[in-house]
Amino acid sequence: xxxxxxxxxxxxxxxxxxxxxxxxxxxxxxxxxxxxxxxxxxxxxxxxxxxxxxxxxxxxxxxxxxxxxxxxxxxxxxxxxxxxxxxxxxxxxxxxxxxxxxxxxxxxxxxxxxxxxxxxxxxxxxxxxxxxxxxxxxxxxxxxxxxxxxxxxxxxxxxxxxxxxxxxxxxxxxxxxxxxxxxxxxxxxxxxxxxxxxxxxxxxxxxxxxxxxxxxxxxxxxxxxxxxxxxxxxxxxxxxxxxxxxxxxxxxxxxxxxxxxxxxxxxxxxxxxxxxxxxxxxxxxxxxxxxxxxxxxxxxxxxxxxxxxxxxxxxxxxxxxxxxxxxxxxxxxxxxxxxxxxxxxxxxxxxxxxxxxxxxxxxxxxxxxxxxxxxxxxxxxxxxxxxxxxxxxxxxxxxxxxxxxxxxxxxxxxxxxxxxxxxxxxxxxxxxxxxxxxxxxxxxxxxxxxxxxxxxxxxxxxxxxxxxxxxxxxxxxxxxxxxxxxxxxxxxxxxxxxxxxxxxxxxxxxxxxxxxxxxxxxxxxxxxxxxxxxxxxxxxxxxxxxxxxxxxxxxxxxxxxxxxxxxxxxxxxxxxxxxxxxxxxxxxxxxxxxxxxxxxxxxxxxxxxxxxxxxxxxxxxxxxxxxxxxxxxxxxxxxxxxxxxxxxxxxxxxxxx
Length: 657
Known about the structure:
By secondary structure, the protein is of the alpha/beta class.
């Protein structure tokens, strides 16, 4: 268990990628309906009720109002001028129960507000009218209603949330952020404090303004520590900043409880236990499924002459996954396979996206379809095998796969962990990253190929830079640890400091993904009594420049429990050996699989003591790159894209027939 260190964690669950409005007051709801869901996904619609304001009005009066409005029509609407606010809400409630349209209900609000709209107590009616107008896609008018509601009731946080959401929907995030900021200091109810902080934290996290996002999530969790989504994002934001220790909890928490909260990506960089990793993924999916219904669309296999393979992704673009797989789609054997791309990627004009689209027989954009509609469309194409290239990473749409639009569904490459749902049948891997005796932890059957990772043989580096241009000392032995910051852990960093302490004329070369990483790592360096010039930070670079600079290092030091997967392959491609110590999960065994299958076992360590000793020895002997020059072969099957595709196609045929 973790002992608490004066804090409570906080963060919203981005399972719903689309910010929603707060919805209208009334309909016999509680003051804020659905705020439990909001805490999980605070960018959802708020449903505000005025039941707390409804007076004890005789039911006969309520029915009379409904009778008049339904049977006497618009001419009777003028009587709405004389309704009190609570009578208005009860009448609206009756209209909704009678199945009246939004325009009819909106007409009642419009009439009432024409006469009563400047009264302070009319703010909720302006709010409701705004929700109705927004639902009818009259967004400018809806914004005006929210603004009017706020002018009458300045602490009306629900109106502020909808107004901010409207600006965000127009692409004006700055104004949305300003609106949320104005409410940070207001004395509002706890639900509002939670919602405002989660929403503002979400926007700032998306902008990589991590310190303030982390603080806002923390404040939200301080109000309600039970929020799973905000906890997940708070924890991951700390990982991204190397803000150690991560476990600043207000009360003790077990490993199992932590696994249920921190989400799939954060857990892969934290747990070296496939059981806990599986719990993290299945818990996230269960939260995503809560309150939703997923109808299975395809169970029976088809009998097409050619197997129809569908690839589902939001990463058909300039993205690390695409840098690896952009060749594979065009390499499929068209005599036996028909290739479909179901695409919800960011639109961009890049060579990688162009290569992907040109490699498909059918490119089908699904950006504007919700999950059920997208799944229904996929089902209409009678896809034999649907391959999810995203998994539970950023931008994921697990709702499509939960509808089971294809009789066979496969997880590959984008997310290398437990699938979290029984609707996924197979996970592509090799027998090293998922040994057969560990397969039960991944929720899907292993689909074994010779090496788990497809590679792009067309990747080309820019001109090799000089060490001086990168800020590296010419004569030093350079340990490279360029990787995503969230993969760094205090335990691995401690070993790197031990290596530096035991060696001379060596430096550690890391990536500063954001300013806080450099600040926090330099603070850690001080704690170990190490000179600051022993740690050098690289910056982000274009893909070709990123590749080229690996040639300037002497040895790559792998992280754990989340290895350098794509980065490790890139380093090897440029002749830089990767020193690794495999763990117990798929992602903690990727680099070892790479080195072993390339015939380079001396870079795979059995213990962390072995890892430290080998890193020290290589700095003295300088033989690591010599070994690579002698034995590394770019023509190995590991980097042979066609070999991989042929092996994968044999597996496709095996599971489809």
